[in-house]
């Protein structure tokens, strides 16, 4: 390698090198909101594709996401807590359920009605009491239904099953000796990470409370934060011994030394990291800062590449972010923040956009993302089972079952998988018309009991009425018509996207070839029809089939007696068709055999992994 090659390595290629932040016009912001004035570093803003929640001291407001502009100061609020609210989190599987952690040592779950609040909400659906001092952080489990994890000022971490009214507390973890600064959970919910005032980063197994690994993360005494990345890595933000702001990347199995550690600047605001799993981008936003830095993560050193920063003249008090299923794909929006201004009662949406000229769906920017359907129940998860989260397509809104983690659904999982498959077809049509909603309410008009999950907004019951059947038939017809339109448009676009190849052959040769192709196509169609009719009956008479084929050939000969060339083409096409059919049948057999072998190999590997895990535990 020459000196010139060492000196100039070129520009690193990246799809996100030119990502920029787009602020929102004032008329599209949420203004005149009574924002909390506390100096805590809590999560004061939470959002999902339906609602926006903002803390206002001991209460919080819930605003429909499309209701922008000036918010009435006398708007309806959630007023159930007696102390200051320190954290808010929406349920990832229910857009109408939100959890709030408060200074009054309680966690409360609230059910927001469809369309938003029409009066002050003072009665919670569930109250979780277990912490002895104020609750600082809460996190929903990303794959298990009704599992909530909380961290309090009493140095305890509690694991809750909010669906169990009699005994909601599953586990209490008391491995911390000082104040817990942050709480994070990995993608499948098998591990949690915490940072605390004793300067340590801990990786904990939440069901058993075992500390998997721990180590000193940042030498400064100020608040530090942590977030899980992909490929068993963790990113932390904190302060150095000289009060410089830092970020560091760690291997979650070895916290003795960071993979990389860099200084950000010398400001004093606490930096909070936000990780986008789909784009592998990390956003760092400091409290009191007017900018948001963003980086791209890679699998090899130096692991983190600086991209750019969003600059603003207004400092931020807190940030909320929209789940990926709520971003605008037509504008190539890959992330969206909701910024609470430190000065002024304003909440401003900020869109992170990849500049593209086309308005069509960009598949390289939007891989399958987290769906709003749980992959497992709380009981199964607490018994030790880990699964990857359910995914959904960003293009159609259809949920996708991740078959790489499990073979067949069992007990509670089978229920979730059934709901997942039945609702996906309905979501495709709704998203095609732009009316997709994460949670649809199912209504039943019969007196029977439910036998299964809801389909197309109606429940199947033992005593189904005639009117519900007729309405269901109309809905099915409308869905079939929409499906046909959608398929026709897809075929049109596929045809138009094909390249045009000019034909320079003489006209006579072209006519002969086209004529023979049409004849062979007609013959192949008739042969397939005969196969579809007689292939289902195993006891079919081979002589009758041969007679039908002979009649077919004779009829074709009678229809084309004037051309001997066409007769030869007919015989050739018939023989080629039989050869192709036999070849395809052999390929299908070989593919089935290879599929069975691969499934057998997967089962053997899973058994081996379980055996190794048991050995590690012992």
Automatic annotation (TrEMBL):
The keyword Repeat applies. PROSITE patterns: WD_REPEATS_1, WD_REPEATS_2, WD_REPEATS_REGION. Residues 431-486 are annotated as: Disordered. WD repeats lie at residues 78-120, 128-170, 173-214. Residues 456-474 have a biased composition (Polar residues). Residues 581-615 form a coiled coil. The keyword Transport does not apply. Residues 431-452 have a biased composition (Low complexity). It holds the Pfam family WD40_4. Residues 475-486 have a biased composition (Basic and acidic residues). It comes from the Eukaryota. Keywords: Coiled coil, Repeat, WD repeat. Transmembrane segments: none annotated. Residues 9-69 form the DUF1899 domain. Belongs to the WD repeat coronin family. This is Coronin. It comes from Aedes albopictus.
């Amino acid at each position: 390698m020459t000196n010139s090659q060492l000196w100039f390595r070129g520009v690193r290629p990246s799809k996100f090198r030119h990502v920029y932040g787009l602020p929102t016009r004032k008329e599209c912001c949420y203004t005149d909101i009574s924002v909390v004035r506390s100096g805590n570093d809590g999560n004061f803003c939470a959002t999902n594709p339906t609602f926006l929640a903002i803390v206002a001291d001991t209460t919080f407001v819930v605003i429909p996401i499309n209701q922008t502009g000036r918010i009435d100061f006398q708007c309806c609020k959630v007023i159930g807590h007696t102390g200051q609210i320190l954290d808010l989190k929406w349920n990832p599987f229910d857009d109408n359920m939100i959890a709030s952690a408060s200074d009054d040592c309680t966690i409360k779950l609230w059910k927001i009605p469809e369309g938003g609040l029409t009066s002050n909400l003072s009665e919670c659906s569930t109250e979780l009491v277990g912490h002895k001092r104020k609750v600082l952080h809460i996190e929903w489990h990303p794959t298990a239904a009704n599992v909530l994890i909380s961290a309090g000022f009493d140095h305890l971490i509690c694991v809750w099953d909010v669906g169990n009214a009699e005994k909601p507390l599953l586990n209490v973890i008391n491995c911390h000796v000082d104040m817990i600064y942050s709480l994070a959970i990995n993608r499948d919910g098998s591990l949690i990470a915490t940072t605390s005032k004793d300067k340590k980063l801990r990786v904990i197994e939440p069901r058993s409370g075992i500390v998997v690994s721990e180590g000193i993360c940042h030498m400064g005494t100020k608040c530090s934060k942590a977030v899980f990345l992909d490929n068993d890595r963790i990113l932390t933000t904190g302060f150095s011994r000289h009060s410089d702001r830092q970020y560091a990347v760690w291997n979650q199995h070895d916290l003795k030394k960071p993979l990389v550690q860099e200084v950000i600047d010398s400001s004093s605001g606490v930096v909070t990291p936000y990780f986008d799993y789909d784009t592998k981008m990390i956003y760092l936003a400091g409290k009191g800062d007017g900018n948001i830095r963003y980086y791209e993560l890679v699998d090899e050193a130096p692991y983190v590449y600086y991209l750019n920063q969003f600059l603003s003249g207004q400092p931020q008090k807190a940030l909320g972010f929209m789940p990926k299923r709520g971003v605008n794909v037509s504008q190539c929006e890959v992330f969206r923040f909701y910024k609470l201004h430190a000065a002024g009662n304003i909440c401003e949406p900020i869109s992170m956009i990849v500049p593209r000229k086309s308005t069509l769906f960009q598949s390289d920017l939007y891989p399958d993302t987290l769906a709003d359907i749980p992959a497992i129940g709380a009981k199964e998860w607490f018994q030790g089972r880990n699964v990857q989260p359910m995914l959904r397509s960003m293009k159609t809104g259809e949920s996708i079952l991740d078959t790489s983690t499990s073979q067949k659904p069992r007990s509670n999982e089978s229920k979730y998988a059934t709901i997942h498959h039945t609702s996906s077809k309905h979501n495709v049509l709704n998203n095609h018309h732009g009316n997709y909603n994460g949670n649809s309410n199912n209504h039943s008009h019969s007196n029977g009991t439910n036998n299964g999950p809801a389909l197309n907004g109606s429940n199947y019951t033992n005593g189904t009425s005639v009117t519900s059947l007729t309405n269901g038939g109309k809905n099915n017809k409308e869905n079939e018509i929409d499906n046909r339109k959608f398929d026709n448009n897809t075929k049109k676009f596929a045809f138009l996207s094909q390249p045009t190849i000019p034909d320079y052959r003489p006209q006579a040769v072209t006519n002969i070839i086209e004529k023979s192709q049409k004849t062979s196509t007609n013959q192949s169609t008739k042969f397939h029809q005969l196969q579809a009719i007689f292939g289902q009956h195993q006891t079919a008479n081979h002589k009758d089939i041969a007679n039908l084929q002979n009649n077919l050939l004779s009829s074709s000969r009678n229809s084309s007696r004037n051309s001997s060339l066409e007769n030869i083409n007919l015989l050739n096409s018939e023989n080629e068709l039989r050869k192709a059919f036999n070849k395809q049948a052999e390929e299908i057999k070989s593919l089935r055999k290879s599929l069975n072998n691969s499934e057998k190999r997967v089962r053997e590997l899973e058994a081996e992994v379980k055996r190794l895990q048991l050995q590690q535990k012992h």
